[in-house]
Structures are given as structure tokens and as C-alpha cells.
Amino acid sequence: MSEVFEGYERQYCELSSSLSRKCASACLLDGEQKKQKVSEIKGGLDDAEALIRKMDLEARSLQPNVKAMLLAKLREYKSDLNNLKSEVKRITSANANQAARDELLESGMADTLMVSADQRGRLLMSTDRLNQSSERVKESRRTMLETEELGVSILQDLHQQRQSLLHAHNTLHGVDDNIGKSKKILTAMSRTMNRNKCIIGSIVAALVIAIILILYFKLSH
Fold first, then answer.
1. Cβ 5 vs Cβ 59: under 8 Å
2. Cα separation of 72 and 78, whole Å?
3. Is residue 84 within 8 Å of 52, Cβ to Cβ?
4. pLDDT in tens, 98-107
5. What is each CA distance from 72 to 66, 111, 113, 125, 142, in whole angstroms?
6. Is residue 69 within 8 Å of residue 22, measured between CB atoms?
7. Cβ neighbours of 96 (radius 10 Å)
8. Which helix (H) or strand (E) holds 12?
9. Chain-centre distance for alpha carbon 138
């Protein structure tokens, strides 16, 4: 929930409670004292209307799910403000002093104030529930972010492992190529050695034959 909205909300609840007490006390006053008290109440109503406008603007600037909850609360605050305005009209009407005293004695005004108090109590309970819901949303968001970070870390590790495997594959491929080249060189050397052996054998055989022929001619003469 918006901290700005909560600040306005606390101010309104405190102001509403103060105005309710002033309305109750104004019903018991006469003359200039009553006029002064009514003037104070009207000034407080103007301040309350300003706070409601600020809460409305703040609520409409938030995300849709939070916005819907805050606007529902705001409708209850507007209803509470209308009740206060009705009480002020009742106080300032003709013969309001006596009528208000009679009504208060008959518990009419007391019931109205009690309803407002009960309504404010429900509003505060709703505020607590909304705060708890907001905390759960924040906790879910933190969990989601942590999960996302973990997923990104795992993907990075997998990418590094893939690069390592590709590098190893390329290294093995290079080794295979070198082995192939070495095999060809050894095969060529083996052929050369065989050919040299044949040549040497032929030379040795020719020398042996030559020696035999020389010995034969010497012995025969």
C-alpha cells in the first residue's frame, strides 16, 4: 500500500474523530459559542474534503489491484464525511439547539455518532486487513524476484558449462586431427624404411655376389 495514502488516511481518521466530538459538544451550546464551534467544524470539514481528494488522487495513481481496494475504502470515508455534514446541517437548522438536545436525550444523535464510530472501527479493521494483504503481496514479490535471480544464475552456469563442453569438443577434434596427421607421417616413414631395407638388401646381395665372383676367378686361376 502507498505510504502517502496511509498518511492521508491517518490524518482523516483523526480529523473525523475530532469533528464528531465537536459536533456532540456543539449540540449543547448556545449563541456565539455555538456559532464559533460550528465555524470550527466547517473548517475541519473543508480539511477533511481536501484529504479525501488527496487520497482519491493517490489511489488512482497506483496499480489496479491496490487501486480497487483503496477506492473501496475511500467510498466509506466519503460516506463518513457525508454523515458529519448532515450532523452540521442538523445543528445549524432552526431550533437546532433544542431539537439536538431532545434528539441526543432520545439517543438519536448518540446513535448517529455511534454508527460513525462503528463505521470508523470497521474502516480501521479494513485498513489492517489491507495492510496485511499488502505485506503478503510484497513478500510474494520478493520471493518471485529471488526465484528469478536464481533462474538467471542457473542459466548463466549452464551457458558457461556449454561453452566449456564446446571448447573441450574442439580440443578433442584438434587432437584427432593431430593423431591422423601423425599416423600418416608414421605410415610414410614406415614405407620409406621398408624401401630403404629393400635397397640395402639389394646392395648387400650385389656385394656378396661380387665377392663370390672375385673369389671364384681368383681360385680358378
1. yes
2. 10
3. no
4. 554 656 565 5
5. 10, 24, 22, 13, 26
6. no
7. 18
8. helix 3-26
9. 7
Contact 44, 56 (CB under 8 A): no
| SS3 at position 47 | helix
> Grid coordinates representing 39?
465555524
Contact predicate 42/19, CB 8 Å: no
Query: What type of residue sits at position 32?
Result: E
The string of DSSP codes covering 152-220 is HHHHHHHHHHHHHHHHHHHHHHHHHHHHHHHHHHHHHHHHHHHHHHHHHHHHHHHHHHHHHHHHHHHHH
pLDDT for 204 = 87
Give pLDDT tens digits for 127-167. Answer: 888 788 778 868 867 877 787 888 777 888 888 899 888 88
Cell reading at 127: 485498513
pTM beyond 0.90: no
User: Residue 166 is placed in which grid cell?
Assistant: 564446446
C-alpha cell at position 37: 464551534
- Angle in degrees, CA 103, 98, 40, rounded to 5: 90
Read off the pLDDT of residues 73-114 as tens digits, 9 standing for 90 and up.
999 999 999 999 999 999 888 445 555 465 656 555 555 566
194 is written with which cell numbers?
A: 621398408
